[in-house]
Fold:
Amino acid sequence: MQEAAGAVLHKVSELAAHAAGASGRAANASMMVEGELMSVLKKPMGPFSGQELTDSRLPGPLPDPYAHEPPRPSTLNLCTDCPYTAEPDPSALLAAGCVTPNELHYVRNHMPAPVLRSGSYSLTIDGPGVHSSSSSSSSSSSSSSSVGSVLLSLGDLQNRFQQHSVLATLQCAGNRRNDMRRFKEVKGGP
Structure:
């Protein structure tokens, strides 16, 4: 039984490593999976020999999900590489004034950056009050409670609408996490 449990643990750790990218990037994911799996394995299980794991259904090595990450600014202090998280030096923020320039904006990713292909990417917006792009805006019969749908391509999103600049405040939920840890342990990365 312990041998089968070890085989399961090894296979799950291997899958976690593939899911998180190249080896070394999966340490946290693998440790979390191992901890969860060990709590399950301590409970009685039905007959299981471990042979079930020898016939892998995986087509081969999975691609690295972080292989297509965009270039990253050198103006930020790197916290983690995969997923990418970085933050500006506090002195650079103070020198920048009241509005943070884009190149100093913090980055907090929880997964790889999505790869958008302009030919195949689309966004569908549907729900009450959405007017189908084929309907006339001057139609008096449409009501705000009607359900409609609009399909937009990546080109539509980039070119069809007027751009606006908005001054807004955005704060990462993990701000001052290290300060909070002096009082009580809190979850989250650096």
